[in-house]
Amino acid sequence: MLIVINFFLINISISEKIWKLVTMNAKMKHLNFSEIIVLSPIKHTDKRGLFFENFNSRDFKKETGNFFNIFQENISFSKKNVLRGLHFQKGYHAQSKLISVIRGKIFDVIVDIREHSHNFGKWTSYILDDSSHESLFIPSGFAHGFLSLDDNTMISYKVDKPYNKNSECSIIWNDDNILIDWPCNKPILSEKDQNALTFDDNYKLNKFKV
Predict the structure, then answer these.
(1) Within a 10 A sphere around the Cβ of 99, how many other Cβ atoms?
(2) Cα separation of 14 and 87, whole Å?
(3) Active-site residue numbers?
(4) What is the span of the domain harbouring residue 118?
(5) CA separation for the pair 75, 85 (Å, rounded)
């Protein structure tokens, strides 16, 4: 099931950098791909429960220089061992994303598809779950996918560009050159993801055009 909300106003083996405080509402750290940012909210609890800011565009721009303009929010529900990815949109429609887990747990994977990057063709990963309430910011220029580690996992991914069918592309999840160390060898896949192109074939076809 996929729910779409439009806003018209607007390897786990990674070497992580030290947390950086962002105002009083969230902390940030960069993964070994410095462009990928983990946001950890400052939580406020009392006898009623829990409250936190999931994202603040003003603070994010102040600390990173990136203005993330949320155009659309997508919600997906996945069974355990469902794998979605590796997806990206090319050209003008390339998307930046903010990934959050509302319920459950995912193994989140990012692949660098920027031709002139020293990380071109490499991958990194991070665990997101509903207890840490962390979010992952992924700018355009990266393919993204995730494996659901729990039943009924629900994730939110906010994007800064709308979905464009003519620009959507996929890299096969078990590409022999990328060699992602997925925690499941036989994931549940859509027909589209089963038939995705390899990294090399995507490059030959369009050089990723991001």
Answers:
(1) 21
(2) 22
(3) 87, 157
(4) 2-205
(5) 15
Task: Tell me the H-state helices in 104-151.
Answer: none
Q: Of 131, 132, 108, give the one whose Cα is nearest residue 183.
A: 108
Query: Are 123 and 109 a contacting pair, CB within 8 Å?
Result: yes
Q: pLDDT tens per residue, the chain (210 residues)?
A: 544 444 333 343 333 443 444 444 668 788 999 999 998 877 778 899 877 677 777 777 777 777 788 889 999 999 999 999 999 999 999 999 999 999 999 999 999 999 999 999 999 999 999 999 999 999 999 999 999 999 999 999 999 999 999 999 999 999 999 999 999 999 999 999 999 999 999 999 877 775
* Two tokens, residue 149: 């580690």
Contact indicator for 74, 3 with CB cutoff of 8 Å: yes
Into how many domains does the chain fold? 1
Long-range contacts for 182-185 (Cβ within 8 Å, ≥24 apart)? 182/83, 182/107, 182/109, 182/147, 183/107, 183/147, 183/149, 184/81, 184/83, 184/147
- 210 assigned to some structural domain: no
CATH of the domain at 18: 2.60.120.10
